[in-house]
Every structure is written in structure tokens, then in C-alpha cells.
Amino acid sequence: MSLLVVGSIAYDSVETPKGKVEKALGGSAIYFAAAASLFTPVDVIGVVGSDYNFAPLDFLRARRVNLEGITQVPGETFYWGGIYGEDPNERETLFTRLGVFADFKPEIPPGCRKPDYVFLANIDPDLQLEVLDKVKKPRLTALDTMNFWIEGKLEALMNVLAKTDALFLNDQEMRLLTGNKNIFKGAEKLFKMGPKYIIVKKGEHGAVLLSKDQVFFAPIYPVWEVIDPTGAGDTFAGGFMGFIARENQIDWKTLKRALIYGAAAASFAVEDFSIDRLKSIRTVHIEKRVMAIKKMTEF
Amino acid sequence: MSLLVVGSIAYDSVETPKGKVEKALGGSAIYFAAAASLFTPVDVIGVVGSDYNFAPLDFLRARRVNLEGITQVPGETFYWGGIYGEDPNERETLFTRLGVFADFKPEIPPGCRKPDYVFLANIDPDLQLEVLDKVKKPRLTALDTMNFWIEGKLEALMNVLAKTDALFLNDQEMRLLTGNKNIFKGAEKLFKMGPKYIIVKKGEHGAVLLSKDQVFFAPIYPVWEVIDPTGAGDTFAGGFMGFIARENQIDWKTLKRALIYGAAAASFAVEDFSIDRLKSIRTVHIEKRVMAIKKMTEF
Q: Do B272 and B227 form a contact (C-beta atoms < 8 A)?
């Protein structure tokens, strides 16, 4: 089924203890699409500057990713630079040059206005709302956000949340949004804001899926050598949403499996810089890690 | 089968955001025994002062816990005071009065010298070694330790590790002992020190069991309201070792289940102060949570 993502498209310069890359492919929409396209066609909505080279995205086109919704405008593409320490959770932003992303106005091509599934990656909640206003109500809408919007645009964020089925967030965002460090108590408050499903991303500790009356735990797939943690969260969401769109089911069983598919996808993302590893794998590689995770949690 | 534990026996004064207790039952050996005795008879080795009141331990005797190995000597019982913030991982020690524990010399009663299973709770590694020297080689020896011994008594600790089958530790202790933040890489180094099994305790993120060629992830059992986190780790070890001693099997399948039994036991420990909740439950309550965890991890 069709899956639409709106998010950032960027160049990233990243340094980690394992090496560095300059102006590599990045952005939430790109990581998401690289993972989701292993399962289902994806429509990408975003903006790039006149400096953007589309050729490296050819592998996405080959995977049925529609790039028609990427607007190219005069100016510089969103450019981010960061450095990671030994702890993948600690990263320092060296620079953020929003470029054309600062004035991003999502435009949805006519052929993309009836998506079955929508992922609103971490962008201004006003823009997230705008996207939802412009498309026919999807079967499932998922949302990602960050402290910046929780602190600075809470009202707009609450408006999107009211229209969101599945919310992705991490422990800190949970605490900021609900005042609760305990994710089970925090989730109770989040359910009242709109979402039926909460996905708590816990980095190397895995992820937790919560509905009003059920809980499911996904571990990570063990990675001995994290090369670059950038984009792991968006890849996770891409695996999750891509799997759901392929199955075209929104029952608990499918959601649980989707969480594991997300975890498996994320484990590949961190094994190389940028989307390099995601580019080289096929769906069967994800499936193998899903089976491995099954063995590592079954008792 | 018989299970021997050597560890601290203490009085704890604890304050948490949910309330406080004064001079409540505490100590690693007591938490451990409270959980393990739900599965198997336990022999406790420890020391208390002349101020210690044995009557509150009657419920342990009723559960086939042998307290004969607890030596009572003139002086004050180990007394610890601490305060927890909203985050159960952050605790401040207000005072530590070692009392008679400072001169603890483990004495093993003749009837306890052929244990099938041994848990060396977090005490001076020289004492841990002494205990192993005094008993017939058990089927499985498990060890807990802490930063204090890793930093101050590394050589003695390495000697115990060489005789240890299963090592319990948390992320920070892993890092301190191996230099690795990544638990999979760290475990590789730990296996070279002696242990065949590593159990990484991750608090609210669950636990990971590692052997040289296998990994198993246990989540927590969801607790909405943590009343007092004290003793969760020792209770976890108690559930783990108690289950193994009951099954009297040391294969991977049993170890995986033991990890879940440990997680279930620990979830009860934190639901009230001291060992109050562990006192009130029966084995069937643990089994119920084990089944619930199964549902929360199966896909």
C-alpha cells in the first residue's frame, strides 16, 4: 500500500570514533525511505536546494520511491554537521545550516494525496498539520517530534497529536511532554492527547510499543561495532511503517512484528555511515535479523 | 537443590518520592534469599550485630531458608541510609555504618559446605574467594560486584572471576571492567576472565544474558509505580539462581527462563519498601508475571 513521508532531506558531515564523512546523504525522509522502500512504495515530500545532486537517490527510485514530491528551489540544501563520542547517545552538533529547509512549504503532488499510511518525520508541527490537511485521511498516521517543538510549539504539536495514530518518541521527549519518567504512566497521558499507539525509542535498549491495554518490548539486534548512529530512529520508523504498509493490517500482532522489523532495519543503519548499509541490503537481510531477534527473546 | 548465598545483612533507612522507612530489613543476602526461597531452600552466610532482631526473618525460615550461617557478634549491624529522586537510578547515600560487617569473616556451617549452587553477592572479593575455598565446588557459581571492588581490589576480583560461572553486572561496571560501553564487545573480554555467562542488569531497560555464542534479552515487567528500588538487583539474582537451583539444569533454555524469573521477582521487590512485597507473594505470583512477560515479548 502507499506510504507517504514528509521530512528533512539533508547533507550530513559526521564524525564518529570510527571515521568521518563529508556532505553525505542524510535527512529523516531519506533514512525513512531507504528502510521503508524495502517493503512498500514510498512517496517522499521534502525540499532541497539548487546544490542537491539527485543521482545518488537512483537506488531509491529503483526501489519504487517516488521523489516527485521533492521540491528543488534556489539556495542551499539543509546541511548538518555533528560529532559523536564513544557513547552513541552523546552527540554534539557542530553546525546546522537550514538553507531552503527554513522556508519549507510541503507541496503534495496530485498523485500522492491519497496515501494509505503517513509518516510525519520530525519537522515543524505546523507543517505536519498542513500535510494532513492536504491529504485524504490515511489508514494510519504516525508522528515523530523532538524537544525543540515540545518546548517551542506545544499548541501546534497538540493539534497534530490529536490527529495522530502512532507517536514515536524517546524517554526524554516522553518526560518533557508528560512530566513522567516512567514510560507506562507517561503513555497513559499521551493516549489522552490522541495517539492509540506509543512507540518509545530507547536507543541501545530497544523499543517499547504501548496501546491502552497492551505492552510489547523489542530489544535491539546486537551490533558489535556502531559506525554511525545518525538516522537510526528514522530508519526504525521506516522499517516499522514500511512493514505495516506491506501487510496493510493495523492489528496488535502486525504492530508487534513491525516493531521488530524496525529494530532490524535500525541495526543496519548504524553499521555504516549515512545510508550506505541500507542501500546495500535487501528485504531478506532484514527478515534474517527478525528471525535472529525471535531466537533472542523466545523462552 | 541447595543454594548458598553470602552477602550483607543490613538495616536500611530509605527515602523515596513515595515515602520512607527507618531501619527496615535490608542487605543483599536478605533480598536474594527472599526471592530465591520461592523456588528452593537457601543457606544464608552473613554477619549481624547484637542489635539484630531475628524475628522478622521468621517468614524466611518458613520458606526453608537456613539462617544458621548468620553469625551474631557484639557491635552494630551494617546500617545504610539513602535517598532516591524521581529517577530510580539516581540515589544518594546519606550514611554507611559498616558496623560488624567491616570485620566479616564468612563461616560456613558444616551442613552448608556442599552447595549445589552459590551466589557471591557484592562483598570484598577476598571474602568471596574465601567462601569458594571453604565449600566443595558447586555446579554453578554466580558473582555480583561493584565499582568499589573493580577500582580498589581488581587483582582479588580477577581471582574470583576465574572461578565464576555467571557474572552479574551493570553497564557502568561493564565499562569499568572492560573499557567497553558496548556490552557485546565487553562480554567478549569478560569471557576471557573466566565466566561462561554474563548477565547485564540494565534497570528499567531489563537485562541481557550472554554466552560465548548466544544472546538473550529480558525486558522488565512493567511497574507503574516504583515505591523503593532498593534491592532490585539482588532480588533479580535471587529469582534467577532460585529458579536454576529448582530446575537443577544449566542449559541455555533454563538460563533464559531464569532471567525472566529474575525480572519477574525484581518487579515485585520495587513495589514496596524493603522486602515487604517479596514477603507477601508466593511462587504462583512470579509465574503469572513470567507468563505476562512471555506475551509482551512474543511475536
A: yes
Min Cα separation A199/chain B (Å): 14
Residue A19 falls in which region: left (phi positive, over 0), alpha (psi -120 to 50) or beta: left
Query: Chain A to chain B, count of Cβ pairs less than 8 Å apart?
Result: 70
Which residues between 235 and 254 in chain A have a beta carbon less than 8 angstroms from any beta carbon of chain B?
253
pLDDT recorded at residue B88: 80
Plot region of A269 (φ>0 → left; ψ -120 to 50 → alpha; else → beta): alpha
CA distance linking residue A244 with residue A119, whole number of Å: 12
* Record: contact A202-B202, CB cut-off 8 A: no
Strand A117-120 to B78-84 pairing: unpaired
CA distances from B192 to A33, B133, B144, B196 (A): 42, 22, 17, 9
Question: Nearest CA to CA, how far is B103 from chain A (Å)?
Answer: 40
**pLDDT over threshold 90, residue A86:** no
Are B216 and A257 in contact (CB < 8 Å)? no
User: Residue A249 — φ and ψ, nearest 5°?
Assistant: -135, 145
Candidate from B181, B217, B219 with C-beta closest to A87: B181
Residue B29: Cβ-neighbour burial (10 angstroms; 0-12, 13-18, 19+)? buried
Cβ pair A184:B224 closer than 8 A:
yes
CA dist., res. B190 & res. B173, Å (int): 11
Q: What is the pLDDT of residues B247-261, one digit of tens each?
A: 999 999 999 999 999
CA distances from B261 to A238, A299, B25, B265 (A): 34, 11, 23, 6
User: Which residue in the block uniquely carries the three cell numbers 509505580?
Assistant: B225
Q: What number is the ipTM of this complex?
A: 0.93
Strand A207-210 vs strand A215-218: parallel, antiparallel, or unpaired?
antiparallel
pTM: 0.95
Q: Does A224 touch chain B (CB under 8 A)?
A: yes
Residue B49: pLDDT band (50, 70, 90) is very high
Closest residue to A215, CB basis, from B182, B257, B296: B296
Q: Does A217 touch chain B (CB under 8 A)?
A: yes
Angle at A65 (CA atoms; ends A103, A145), nearest 5 degrees: 45
Please give the DSSP secondary-structure letter assigned to residue A99.
G
| Chain B interface includes A27 (CB < 8 A) | no
Q: How far apart are CA A181 and CA A257, in angstroms?
A: 26
Q: Nearest CA of chain A to the CA of B296: how many Å?
A: 4
> Is the CB of residue B18 less than 8 Å away from at least one CB of chain A?
no
- Rounded to the nearest 10 degrees, the angle between the axes of helix B183-193 and helix B171-178 is 60
